[in-house]
């Protein structure tokens, strides 16, 4: 696997690949890789000639400096996982390579930025769009792969691609789960054994509403979900919502796709999860 640390290296590599007629798949990450990330590499390998991944813990998307400080960065283990997964190249830049000191960024994507995660983490999605736009410009991928666990992020990036006319296809890949149902996340390493057990209420609640879903009983199921979350020790629910799968506004009878989304603090760790309940 080739490892690049500068923009110019990656650009030259990508330009040569395109000149050779190769289709580039891109998997951007913040590292602390788990099987969810590696499933994106697998999807990219199945659809593209060359797979490039990035590992960059992006400071502009963290609304809490302490959260940025404690974000895991096991780079050697990550490199080993990417090599074993068949990734062709890694872009692992420093912050100074990605940002000049006084950069300004703002892209108006409407209310999508302020719903759910956006309400809980103001400014987060501007930081996400800022770095993903930079990465797309550097890597020039044909296809980029993202996980469904960050459902809202996928919609945000899709909106950015549309508004800026970026020539890339986006693919959303299914959530990878532990055998007990917990959505795989880089943040799971912060869960104590007790936290981990309590965190299972998120996927259990989502599965319950999915199994019992119909478009007439959303208010009842939402109340049931909040009750289950509030009764679980050590869990503080941030939101539970049935949302339109295209807009993330509250779902109604006419929403073509409906997704149930949840966020909660478990111990000191904030987790998110979702399931598509109707399509």
Q: How many distinct beta strands?
A: 9
Q: Roughly what percent helix?
A: 40-55%
Order of helices and strands: EHEHEHHEHHHEHEHHEEE
Structural class: alpha/beta
CATH topology group of the largest domain: Rossmann fold
Shape: globular
Rg is 19 Å
CATH architecture of the largest domain: 3-Layer(aba) Sandwich
Task: Please give the domain count.
Answer: 2
Quaternary structure state of the chains depicted: single chain
Taking the alpha carbons of the first and last residues, their distance comes to: 39 Å
Overall pLDDT: 97
Q: What is the class of the largest domain in the CATH system?
A: Alpha Beta
Strand-residue fraction? 15-25%
- Uncertain parts: none
H/I helix tally? 10
| Major sheet summary line | 6 strands, parallel
Task: Please characterize this protein's 3D structure.
The protein is an alpha/beta fold. The chain has 2 domains: 172 residues, HUPs (Rossmann fold, 3-Layer(aba) Sandwich), CATH 3.40.50.620; 89 residues, Pantoate-beta-alanine ligase, C-terminal domain (Pantoate--beta-alanine Ligase, Chain: A,domain 2, 2-Layer Sandwich), CATH 3.30.1300. The chain is 41% helix and 20% strand. The protein contains 10 helices and 9 strands. The chain has a 6-stranded parallel β-sheet with strand order 1-4-3-2-5-6, sandwiched between helices. Strands 7-8-9 form a 3-stranded antiparallel β-sheet, covered by helices on one side. Helix 7 packs across helix 8. The radius of gyration is 19 Å and the shape is globular. The termini are far apart. The model has no long low-confidence stretch (mean pLDDT 97).
């Amino acid at each position: 696997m080739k490892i690049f640390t500068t923009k110019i290296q990656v650009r030259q590599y990508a330009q040569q690949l395109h000149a050779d007629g190769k289709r580039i798949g891109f998997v951007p990450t913040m590292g602390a890789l788990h099987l969810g990330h590696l499933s994106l590499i697998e999807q990219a390998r199945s659809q593209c000639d060359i797979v490039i991944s990035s590992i960059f813990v992006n400071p502009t998307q963290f609304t809490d400096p302490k959260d940025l400080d404690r974000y895991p960065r096991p780079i050697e283990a990550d490199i080993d996982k990417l090599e074993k997964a068949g990734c062709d190249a890694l872009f692992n830049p420093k912050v100074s390579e990605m940002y000049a000191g006084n950069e300004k960024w703002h892209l108006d994507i409407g209310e999508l930025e302020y719903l759910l995660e956006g309400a809980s983490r103001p400014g987060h999605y501007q930081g996400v769009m800022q770095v993903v736009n930079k990465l797309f410009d550097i890597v020039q991928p044909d296809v980029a792969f993202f996980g469904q666990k960050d459902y809202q992020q996928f919609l945000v990036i899709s909106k950015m691609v549309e508004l800026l006319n970026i020539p890339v296809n986006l693919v959303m890949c299914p959530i990878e789960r532990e055998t007990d149902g917990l959505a795989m996340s880089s943040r799971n390493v912060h869960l104590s054994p007790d936290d981990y057990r309590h965190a299972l209420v998120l996927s259990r609640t989502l599965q319950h509403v999915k199994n019992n879903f119909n478009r007439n009983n959303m208010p009842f199921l939402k109340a049931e979900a909040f009750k289950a979350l509030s009764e679980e020790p050590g869990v503080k629910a941030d939101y539970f919502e049935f949302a339109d799968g295209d807009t993330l506004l509250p779902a109604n009878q006419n929403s073509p796709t409906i997704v149930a989304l949840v966020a909660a603090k478990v111990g000191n760790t904030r987790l998110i999860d979702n399931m598509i309940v109707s399509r």
